Amino acid sequence: MTEADARRDDRWLGEDLDLDAYLARIGYDGPRTASVDTLRALVRGHTTTIPFENLEIILGRGIPLELEALQDKLIRRRRGGYCFENVGVFAAVLERFGFGVSGLSGRVTYGALADGAIRPATHALLRVTTPDDDRVWICDVGFGFGPLEPFELVDGRGEFGLGDWRYRLERHTGDLWVLFQFGRDGWIDRYTFTENPQYRIDYAVGNHFVSTSPRSPFTTRPFLQRFLPEVHHVLDDMTLTTEYPDGAGHSRELEPGELPKVLTEVFDIDLDESDAAALVTMPWRTD
């Protein structure tokens, strides 16, 4: 490895990003300055435009995290991705804008915090700072369920709203933070995280587990999300669920032949004919 290569290991390679194409993808035409207002607009644009999906795994393909592969999938082909993919692109964008960016890892709990269960640190999120502000922001563009904007990392903040969606941030023992969200089941712990920095190589290790392990939830069935200011759509296996900020929601079971249309109309994902035909056969249910 050359010295130049080594210097790139702790960065997000923003210089290799097609920034114009990315900004067109999320519909952002505002100032290209590293301000809090810009950060809010970028998070909202990314979160509401690029869906969460694991279809490449279900179709028998891997999840490369090289920036060029991510740009091709999420930007040029207008597909979605899960946290490692979304964060890889978004971190490069923020770095290119001049924000301070550090990777973080979270442990998704979804109600298991009270039981003391230890979950693997397989969720990627970002710690972000601006050149002219001493506040620290958390950007979570890869969970599939918002928040719509960055939230300030500050102890004792309690409940806050981003759009009509409600969240609560608490600091627990030591440097452990817990993000809660309000939904159909009331308040529930979403994930825990610390400020221990993570690098691209750390995400590559987590991505390998998430995309290949039979213990990973993403290798066993399709899981897609589309998050908007007024509604959250989820496809879990063949169950399509619609959720609203007040906790209301409804679900229905899909027929296999509906999948391509639902992907297009609900999740804004257009598969090519061969992939659509393969998905209709429900390959994740074959022995």
Structure description:
The protein is α+β, with helices and mostly antiparallel strands. It is built from nine helices and twelve strands. Helix content is 30%, strand content 25%. The strands form two sheets. An eight-stranded antiparallel beta sheet has the order 4-3-2-1-8-7-6-5. Strands 9-10-11-12 form a four-stranded antiparallel beta sheet. Strand 9 and strand 10 form a beta hairpin. Helix 5 crosses helix 6. The longest helix is centred in the N-terminal third of the chain and has 15 residues.
Brief sketch in words of this structure:
The protein has 287 residues and is an alpha+beta fold. The chain is built from nine helices and twelve strands.
Question: Which helices and strands, and how do they pair?
Answer:
Elements: H1 3-8, H2 19-26, H3 36-49, H4 55-58, H5 67-76, H6 83-97, E1 100-108, E2 123-130, E3 133-139, E4 151-152, E5 158-162, E6 165-171, E7 177-183, E8 186-193, H7 200-212, E9 223-227, E10 232-236, E11 239-243, E12 249-253, H8 259-265, H9 273-280
Antiparallel strand pairs: 1-2, 1-8, 2-3, 3-4, 5-6, 6-7, 7-8, 9-10, 10-11, 11-12
Helix pairs in contact: 5-6
Taking the sheet with the most strands, its summary is:
8 strands, antiparallel
Kindly provide the radius of gyration, computed on alpha-carbon positions and rounded to a whole number of angstroms.
18 Å
Inertia-based shape: globular
| SSE class | alpha+beta
**Could you estimate the helical fraction of the residues in percent?**
25-40%
In DSSP terms, counting alpha (H) and pi (I) runs of 4 or more, how many helices? 9
Strand order of the largest sheet: 4-3-2-1-8-7-6-5
Ends apart, CA distance between termini: 43 Å
Mean pLDDT: 93
Beta-strand content: 25-35%
The parts where pLDDT drops under 50 for at least 5 residues are: none
Total number of strands: 12
Q: From N to C, what is the helix and strand string? A: HHHHHHEEEEEEEEHEEEEHH
